[in-house]
Known about the structure:
The structure is a single chain. It is built from 15 helices and 7 strands. By secondary structure, it is of the alpha/beta class. It has a domain of about 220 residues: Glycerol-3-phosphate (1)-acyltransferase (3-Layer(aba) Sandwich). The protein has a 7-stranded mixed sheet with strand order 1-7-6-2-5-3-4, sandwiched between helices. The N and C termini lie far apart (about 50 Å).
Amino acid sequence: MDPFKDIRPYSDSEVASVLQSLASNPSVLKAFVGLQFPSMLSKMPFIEFFAKQKLNSYLTTINTIDDYQMIFKNLMEKVIEKSISSFQVNGLDCINKDDNYLYISNHRDISLDAALLAFHLHQSGFRTFNIAVGNNLMEESWASDLFRLNKSFIIQRAGGTKKEIYSNLSLASQFIQYSIFENNTSVWIAQKQGRAKDGMDNTDPALLKMIHLSTRKSQSAASYFNSLKVVPVSISYEYDPNDQLKAKELDVLQTKKQYAKKKDEDLKSIADGITGKKGNVIINLTKPMNFAEDDNYQSISEKITSSIISSYKLQATNFAACKLLKIDLKQDAYSAEEIAHAEKKLEGRCQFLGTGARSKLLEQYANPAIRQMQIT
């Protein structure tokens, strides 16, 4: 019996049946039509019939997870070519090609944060990793299928009784342990649940507690995280394609204290994050951390947070946002012309936002610079 069957990445033997289910799903077909055909053409009679034939033909070329990964690799190449001005990953000299790690990353984009790092690791001859994904993205089963075809596993954080939630989190903890120590596969996980929509990168001690659940009775937190070889990951986007949506949400939360997501809002964010212009993107890795034996969840989280913030690559947009918010931060990395250009770009992104949402958008970009200056 497979205890991880409902949450783990799919295996080669499951690919055919999963793809067959996807090909017959109206929601998948609708998404495929939207991507493949112009808006006017998509309204033509019988277009869905022809799209289904094309989709079925396309899917017949995928027989294994590696086949799917090759398609995903091609997609990432196009994303980098079409939507990123420059892309670099630093710190590969901090890790070993033969070792497994727990990559703990700041979180900006739903799908690309992990995908871009995995792509670069693969291109550089390193093993990729299993990706932790929260079940909040899995309102539709087909979305779950697409993630699990791409080496993702599901963390059931919500739903059911407290006992059921605890059981689900314990299962995720066991899978992380199994993945790294038995299946010889690293794991990527965001430092807290959900994206840092305000640009404040903090590691949640509750996340560390969840990861430790499987060995909490036999190993101290510090000992276990040392054995997992925690590698802090910091990803920096010059521009966030979802910054306006995030700003509006944060503004609503501040004024009304509650925000109701529209149907498929997360899926739209995924699509916009993939296709939207991101400017320069930099990922920095640091060497595996070593925690003191008396470190608890709080101190471990603070050390990881400090490492992520310190290694975050500040861009011209970060300093330009500070300037627009009348926050004076000294810097010599960018010229006055570069800052002025970034200011103009940010003002353009704020053009149709209300006063509150405008502030929230600028804060997204300013906060990483403010936090890094506070730490250093």
